[in-house]
Amino acid sequence: MKSLRASFIILLMLLYGYVFILQEKHAQFKDITLENPIPVSLYRVASGYGRQLAAEMLFIKTAVFLGEVKQKAPNTSYASALENNFDAITSLYPRFIDPYYFSQAYLPSLSRDAAEKNNNILDTGITAFPKDFAFRLFKAINFILYLNEPLESARSFAETAAIADAPPLFGHLAAVFSAQGGDIVAGLISLKALLASEKDKGVRSRYQKEIAIFEQAVQVNDALIAYQKKNNAPPDDLNQLVPEFIPAIPEIKDTFILVYNKPLLRLVRPTPLK
């Protein structure tokens, strides 16, 4: 029985190597495409207990395509197939870590739909590796760079910050993008939590300065709420809040600036984060 099992394993290894070599040779002489992808559900049914092997073989095919042929083809010709393949690979074998990095490297920049699909794929990775910072970090980056959803980015950074031994940088980024998305109060709460747990004097001083800025922005936001409650509509300009609802609009500049896009007030970094 043991010898039969060993022979079966060796056969699978040989098959694995043969498929890899075959795909490599095929890429050198043929025009490879990823069109007409097989649905993920069919991959699951067809592969049965060989899901890991099926995932690895599909990954080989996809990696060969990306390495040898992708440069010759327009994005639109392979985007949907690439999405499907990475979805299939990670669904069949969730703890196969390489496909998540490949997916992050190639999908988000293709289109908004591809970035959203990539985040769904990363959710599979988060479930398989709940203590890994990388997948939540990738999602947060995608939300801000490719999807223009700062509040979702803030939520992902906050989830990353909640992991044991996570760097405080993630909590700070959650505060920054909360404010950029218009939830200045949530950003202020995050900053105060960071200050309470920080021991470094230099970092504490920076947090205190940012908290003072956020508190000023919250005062303006409170004035906006009061104005809208009285007038049943938001103001066209922040100066309409003065002096009835706030004595003056605070001068916030340098590290953050106030941006009012009726009806939303945001606190935004004027330069890229470093």
Helix/strand layout:
Elements: H1 2-29, H2 40-47, H3 51-69, H4 79-92, H5 98-106, H6 112-128, H7 133-145, H8 150-161, H9 168-180, H10 184-197, H11 201-231, E1 257-261, E2 264-268
Helix pairs in contact: 1-3, 2-4, 3-4, 4-5, 4-6, 6-7, 7-8, 8-9, 9-10, 10-11
Keywords:
mainly alpha, elongated, 274 residues, 11 helices, 2 domains, two-stranded antiparallel sheet, 2 strands
What can you tell me about this protein's structure?
- The chain has helices at residues 2-29, 40-47, 51-69, 79-92, 98-106, 112-128, 133-145, 150-161, 168-180, 184-197, 201-231; strands at 257-261, 264-268.
- It contains eleven helices and two strands; from the N terminus they run H-H-H-H-H-H-H-H-H-H-H-E-E.
- Helix 4 packs antiparallel against helix 5 (98-106).
- The model has no long low-confidence stretch (mean pLDDT 86).
- It has a two-stranded antiparallel sheet.
- Strand 1 (257-261) and strand 2 form a beta hairpin.
- The protein folds into two domains: 1-148; 150-274, no CATH class.
- The protein is mostly helical and 274 residues long.
Number of strands: 2
The total tally of domains equals 2
Report the radius of gyration as a whole number of Å: 25 Å
Instruction: Please indicate the percent range of residues in DSSP E strands (runs of 2 or more).
Output: under 5%
The profile of the biggest β sheet is:
2 strands, antiparallel
Report the principal-axis shape: elongated
Task: Offer a concise description of the structure.
The protein has 274 residues and is mostly helical. It is built from 11 helices and 2 strands.
